[in-house]
């Protein structure tokens, strides 16, 4: 049997990052930047008011108090978006709104709350320090600053910063388009009646959601029966829009294991037994003219999910250029003795919790059989037990792979 680490490194050797693409700003959300972005102008672009109030010369109001306010004529009313703003000089002030350009000459803003709010004349009841409530041009970002570097994951704040410096397009690695196909004549779409002997297709939902959580654009195909011609036709049809294909089911040693049957004929997918539990039967290779990577995952729901986590997720993340390919792993104190099969790497569903001293505690869940979805949905981590270990006792420290949903 092939070792997990060898299978993963073979996969990652084949997988190439997608070519960079110039995309519209919102389409860059969730992608990794491949250019260094330089600000063409400063932020803020001009001195502006941080408050609704009055633009003044600080010197004019230095003696203002509630008991003896300083009264000034209001010579202008400046709103956000005003373009022609006249200067003021000593003895004058201008009513000003948040975000409006400061009039030349003024060097502070008195918030409206510290005045009587007058429109022709205003009584100012507190002094203002030089520069008070003024946002100065360039104090946030200078023109020419490299604001975001190649390799940065573009989340919501990064999209906002790019917009603020006027970018409507950026160059990123696009999100891989992943097509998920489940096979099995027993499978029914959820929402439809299920006869005895049938089950609803859950794997394609799990894997589509998991691919999206990994950062991909994932398309789910309704399940198809164990019919070689239909499977082959479907894969061919889907290749036009797929950067990566995932199938589930049909790779065991049984009759009607169509995925294996069909793809073996093409000769570009290797079907292997990988020394892991769950998830032993694994297939990986490429199909079609563009050598699109394809993963053929086992049908048992937990095997499919664990295989995705261990092999497919890092591949997707390599395709879109993510800095971190792998799930975060933490050391945790095992709460319950567990056995592990000799010679296989075990990925055991588990519940991880922080303890009061900052370390982690981890408890394996249930029987670890690979059809049990209830425990999988409750798990927030997988305990990883190395190949040569057959028993880990309570109190020992183990590695736990966290299944949290982070994309960067
Ligand atoms: P297979 O790998 O096709 O032999 O399937 C192994 C087991 O997983 C069988 O019990 C199948 O019914 C089950 N299974 C296969 N595909 C799915 C699926 N898409 N959703 C839920 N269970 C599945
Ligand atoms: Mg099947």
TrEMBL record:
Residues 179-318 form the MoaB/Mog domain. Pathway: Cofactor biosynthesis; molybdopterin biosynthesis. Pfam families: MoCF_biosynth, MoeA_C, MoeA_N. Its cofactor is Mg(2+). One of its GO terms (molecular function) is molybdopterin molybdotransferase activity. Catalyzes the insertion of molybdate into adenylated molybdopterin with the concomitant release of AMP. This is Molybdopterin molybdenumtransferase. It comes from Phytoactinopolyspora halotolerans.
């Amino acid at each position: 049997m092939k070792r997990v680490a060898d299978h993963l490194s073979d996969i990652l050797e084949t997988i190439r990052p997608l070519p960079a693409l110039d995309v519209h700003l919102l389409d860059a959300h969730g992608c990794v930047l491949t250019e260094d972005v330089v600000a063409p102008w400063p932020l803020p672009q001009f001195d502006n008011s941080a408050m609704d109030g009055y633009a003044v010369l600080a010197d004019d109001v230095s003696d203002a108090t509630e008991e003896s306010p300083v009264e000034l004529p209001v010579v202008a009313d400046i709103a956000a978006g005003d373009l022609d703003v006249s200067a003021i000089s000593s003895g004058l002030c201008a009513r000003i709104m948040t975000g409006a350009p400061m009039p030349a000459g003024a060097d502070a803003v008195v918030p409206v709350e510290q005045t009587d709010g007058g429109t022709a004349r205003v009584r100012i009841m507190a002094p203002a320090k030089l520069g008070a409530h003024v946002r100065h041009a360039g104090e946030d970002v200078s023109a020419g600053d490299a604001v975001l570097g190649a390799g940065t994951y573009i989340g919501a704040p990064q999209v906002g910063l790019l917009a603020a410096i006027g970018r409507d397009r950026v160059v990123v690695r696009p999100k891989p388009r992943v097509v998920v196909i489940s096979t099995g004549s027993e499978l029914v779409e959820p929402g439809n009646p299920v006869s005895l002997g049938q089950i609803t297709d859950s794997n394609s939902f799990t894997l589509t959601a998991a691919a999206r959580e990994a950062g991909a654009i994932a398309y789910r195909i309704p399940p198809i029966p164990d019919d070689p011609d239909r499977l082959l036709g479907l894969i061919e049809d889907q290749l036009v829009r797929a950067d990566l294909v995932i199938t589930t089911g049909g790779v065991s040693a049984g009759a009607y294991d169509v995925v294996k049957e069909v793809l073996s004929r093409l000769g570009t997918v290797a079907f292997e037994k990988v020394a892991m539990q769950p998830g032993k039967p694994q297939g990986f290779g490429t199909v079609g003219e563009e050598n699109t990577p394809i993963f053929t995952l086992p049908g048992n729901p937990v095997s499919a999910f664990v295989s995705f986590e261990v092999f497919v997720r890092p591949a997707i993340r390599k395709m879109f250029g993510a800095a971190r390919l792998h799930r975060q792993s933490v050391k945790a104190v095992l709460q319950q003795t567990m056995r592990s099969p000799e010679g296989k790497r075990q990925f055991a569903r588990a519940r991880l919790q922080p303890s009061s001293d900052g370390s982690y505690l981890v408890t394996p869940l249930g029987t670890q059989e690979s059809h049990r979805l209830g425990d999988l949905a409750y798990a927030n981590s997988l305990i990883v037990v190395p190949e040569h270990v057959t028993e880990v006792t309570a109190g020992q420290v183990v590695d736990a792979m966290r299944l949290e949903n982070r994309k960067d």
